[in-house]
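User: Structure please.
Assistant: Input sequence and predicted structure:
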Amino acid sequence: SSGINAEWPLRPGINNMDYLTFVIPSRETYKNDYFLCKNNRCVTYDKVCDLVDDCWDGSDEETCTNQFHCNTSNTRIPIWQQCDGQINCQDSSDECNDGCGKEIIDGIPLKISSWIIGSLAVVFNIIIISISLKDLRGVNTSVGLLNKLL
């Protein structure tokens, strides 16, 4: 045998069934120090789930449970910075998501006021559109139509 065995290691913070690693004999014991990236590059396990793309394809950070991946960028932050009240992602996805359970509009009076203002805005827009459509009915030429629209 070549002295290299393959096994599924148990590593905290990593979805353990996704990656095969190499176990290398080292003085009567076996060490599994290498992570096999999707692009077949190998990195040591201390580089996996460290918030740095050491594989150059992101596979060493892909299934980590100790970090949060921002929605619209490749930025990753430690999981403890998610929902901490401070925005760490450019798109605010670390604070404004289903997992945080925070509401932008908090309090019953503010919610009721927001619904009333939103409903009134819809009603007034419908009135304005209907008045504009009435004004357009009597126009017979394209020049007249353009003049009414402006």
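The helical segments are 108-137, 142-149.
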